[in-house]
Protein: DUF3152 domain-containing protein
Amino acid sequence: MVVLGVTLLLAATAAVTLTRAGDRAPVPTTGDGNRTSFAAGADERPRPSAYPRTGTGDFTTAPGDSPVRGTDGPLRYYRVAVEQGTDQDVAAFAATVDEVLGDPRSWIASEELRLRRVAEADDADFTVYLATPETSERMCAEGGLSTEGYTSCRLPGQVIINLARWLEAVPDYGAPLEIYRAYVVNHEVGHELGEEHQACPAPGEPAPVMQQQTYGLDGCVANAWPYVDGSRYDGELVPGT
Structure:
């Protein structure tokens, strides 16, 4: 068992180093995965069903480049990779990430940012990973973030999406799985773009995309987009998260 644990840890560490050499060293940057306990308690976590808890620790990168998304601003390059052993198709995951980031309600709506997916690590500013709960937990922990295998997270140059959340979302989210998926991509990529956590403005209002919606909506309504009705939509900053 000790040998197996060391092997998995080394594999996850190798996966984290896939980001380009110019990325900053991983330091804690709060994503959804910065809390140390579940709101509902450990005994009430969703149980694994149709997904593996752990994979190989190695990642397959989506091939090819996407068109440039956005009309103006600096061009940021991202890569997409899926952990082997997840039974998830890397092309399908990449297509969803492309669709979310290329949506006119996403971050490109600022007209101060353009995005393009690339296949080569040396060309990428950041990588969007899809990883099993155990692998994502280890990867996030490399930067000092505690996810307990439940949430996704972001480290400098690394957007790490938890497979369980990708397939099951969270209890009582109140919106289809596709909305949660768009939310979690926009939320964690938002951190990569320098955004911080925000609070629910008022009960019944849309939740800001930088609200930690994985932990609950606090009376707000699920929302996946940083731009609502053509305008940037924000809540008050939440200090220290």
Remarks:
- The beta strands are 59-61, 75-83, 114-117, 126-131, 153-155, 158-162, 227-228, 231-232.
